[in-house]
Amino acid sequence: SKVGSSEPCFAAPAPPPDDFSGFGGGGFGGGTSTFRRLEVMNDVPCMDSLDPTTGEPMTFTYRGKDYKHAGGVTLPTYLSAVKYCLSTPTILIIQPNTLTAGDYKFEVNASKIVASEERRSSLSLTITMVETSDLSTGRMPMVTVKMESFSEEKVIAGGITRLRAEVTNAQNDTSYSYKWSAYRYGINPDYSADAAGFDAGYAVQQYKYVEMSPIDFNFSDPEQVRTGATSEYLVIAPNVLSAGMKYKFKLVATDTFMVQQGIQDNTGYGELDFEAEGLVPSGGSIEVSNISGTALETVFSFQMFGWGSEDLPLEYQFSFMTDYNAAFAQPIKLTSVFTERAYLKTVLPQGETGGQNMLRVLGTVRSSLGATASAYVDISVRPPSQAVIDARVEQAAKADPETAMVMTTMLAKSEAVTAEQITPALQAIQTAVEDGNSVALTQEAVSAMADLISASAEKGILTDEVLATMDYLVEQAIAGGYISVDSSLENPADTTYALFNGLDSMTPGDAPSYSEARRLGLKGGRNKGGMVPCDNPAVARRLQAAVSTETRTPKSMYEQYYRITATQQKLSSVMLSQMYPGEVPVSFSMAGQDLFLGKDFSKPDGG
């Protein structure tokens, strides 16, 4: 029906032919010779017109569904008066130039017989028809919303969710403004259980997508949304969405030129709905066989107990931190890959936290969808004897490359072990890694090798050969697709961080201590001290500064500095290619420097 008017709905009334009654509903318009203001839409099927160039039906796809093109729908000549048809029982097509300007209410009534009782439901929709003009024809924004997350098949609640909207018919003479809205599927606040119980024809839906308030989802909070509130890009931070919930995100695009010209039909929208998956494993703990021992000698047994998840199988990985209270402490892996084995027997390096040589061991559990959880236990690990050190050094030199990688990292993290003692094992591992056959350079193996280089650099092993291995690891990580900005946000200790940290450990110059960084007022990411100068460039990291472990000549330091900078730029370029304009910068906080990677929000053309 046309709202507030007694005009006929259709502009070209004509009497139906005598044989029209065969098309259902007792005849079009109730069998009268003129169209009434209230039209009953009868079951008139659409017929296809074939594209003269292809011979195929003329169709188009909109928001993931196929429709018959309005120009490709025809009716028999004796039905020329009918201005609509049904391409399916639930899809109505109205011919162009049929409805005049105004508001129209379309109502759909559905019924079903259940247990000899008829159930009815009704929904209505009001649309506004506006007068066309040369400016508005064909330029109302047509918007699509696409998922561009790391895994486009599933949305993992604990991961980054990336959406990108696009105006598919963008005009060159205008710019567009954007506004996002978020909805969650749940109880309809307009639904009344009492009314539904008394009224058999009650048609209000009990569940629907309900718009979320800023308390539930705030587009202006950078902790929740990493892109601007008026951007066509949307990056949702990890753990903002809840696993098991259904969401819908809608973007409305407005043509600013049409607004300036006073044209009403100036907006379009696109939306995407999905279910967040990936409940975090829960209910478990980590247990240890004994809470104290001697470094590199006592064998500790660790067990991950009681972990459960609906996304099986579960996989486990273990790591340690010798000085877990340090500002830039990062876990060092005890197992280079995740496995289904929930236990580990291993020796450990000397603890460096507090007067009792405390050390932290972390157990991480990962579901089949990538959701992770962790637990830790702190134990006391006393310094080893020289005889134990000598035995472990000899063992590392003879072990297979992957075992040697873990053992040599432990030795490098032990204060009593010298650079000369671990150099032979390090050189053997370098050779095995670079020959391409002895070690499978998985994502976890690249990270473990970068951890070893960082630990060795603390001992003063800063040779050109080690830096060459670092360059090789970066090249292999890029070629293998291991560099992901999303993984870095979800897990700050991932492969990308390990590579940046390895390069940072070899960067020449004196890195101020955490307390010195605080005293000098240096900035830092992730609530840490950091080494980024605030207002005083004189306190930045300086080349050729006196460092206790520095063994390089000034010439060697400068040459390595430029090599390291070039390698950092390679890593940065890969990550920047994955980021959206205006996204909150990704920060890597390390002992020597903080790195911030981001893209400018503005564009020279005002876009």
Portion of residues in beta strands equals 25-35%
Structural class: alpha+beta
> Unreliable runs, pLDDT <50, ≥5 residues?
11-37, 522-547, 603-607
Quaternary status:
single chain
Structural shape: elongated
Tally the helices: what do you get? 11
Biggest β-sheet strands, sense, barrel? 5 strands, mixed
Keywords:
alpha+beta, elongated, disordered C terminus
Describe this structure in words.
The chain has 607 residues and is α+β, with helices and mostly antiparallel strands. Helix content is 22%, strand content 26%. It is built from eleven helices and 26 strands. It has a five-stranded mixed β-sheet with strand order 10-16-15-12-13. Strand 23 and strand 24 form a beta hairpin. Helix 3 runs parallel beside helix 5, helix 6 runs parallel beside helix 9 and helix 7 packs parallel to helix 11.
Secondary structure elements and their pairing?
Blueprint: E1 47-48, E2 59-62, E3 65-68, E4 73-74, E5 84-88, E6 91-94, E7 102-114, E8 117-129, E9 143-147, E10 155-156, E11 161-167, E12 176-187, H1 193-198, E13 207-211, E14 233-236, E15 246-255, H2 256-260, E16 267-277, E17 285-288, E18 292-294, E19 300-305, E20 315-321, E21 332-333, E22 343-346, E23 358-366, E24 372-382, H3 386-398, H4 401-412, H5 419-434, H6 443-458, H7 464-479, H8 485-490, H9 495-506, H10 514-520, H11 554-578, E25 586-589, E26 594-597
Parallel strand pairs: 10-16, 18-24
Antiparallel strand pairs: 1-4, 2-3, 5-6, 7-8, 9-11, 11-14, 12-13, 12-15, 15-16, 17-19, 19-22, 20-21, 20-23, 23-24, 25-26
Helix pairs in contact: 3-4, 3-5, 4-5, 4-6, 6-7, 6-9, 7-9, 7-11, 9-11
